[in-house]
What we know:
This protein starts with a helix and ends with a helix. The protein is mostly helical. 35% of the residues are buried. The protein has twelve helices and no strands.
Amino acid sequence: MSPSAAASLRLELSLVQPVLRAAAARMWRSDAGLRDRYRHYLRAMHQVIRASVPLMERAATRCERLPRDPLAPPLAQYLRAHAEQERGHDDWLLTDAAATGTAPCELTATAPPAHVAALVGAQYYWIEHSHPVALLGYIAVLEGNAPAPGLAGRLARETGLPTAAFETVRLHADLDGGHSADLDRLITQLHLDPAQRSLVAVSALHTVATLAELFDRIATAPHVSESVHD
């Protein structure tokens, strides 16, 4: 993909990012329900993030089975390396949940709802039935919309939960900017044909839409009595 084509993807995402940012703002609004919404957020993001490493490993394996595809070797190398960078991040969420008074089993034993399956599951379909490069669109959205640097501190102050409950938010605010830059360099170096470029864009736009839906569902989740958790 040429530098102009990589920039084109970022331009397309910039046009729809206001939708995602507005959904995030509704989810993080300051009111009496914020504490419960944060607990809902931890559960939902655990369901999403626990799939990150398996997705990248599956996409890398598919690349390694495409020996004549010039795109496959650099893409597989990136995915293998990035999977190692992301390994264990789902455990961070379990630790954060425990700090809120939520037992980790409440996160791990819950079946992911359909909207989470739609967010993550589309990537498995495109990896298996189209081309593993689709996953770059998904990664571009998730890492291009890192939490704001001050969000963890604000959430701690407004929810009254311990600062230890917000380590994943804080760490992703610090890490995802660098990961996003790595992805931009890879996209610039790859030589994608028009169909592959379209696939990456479709994957990214789908991710924006379904992630915004996830945030909106959390934003409108019913208030849960403190006695349920504490």
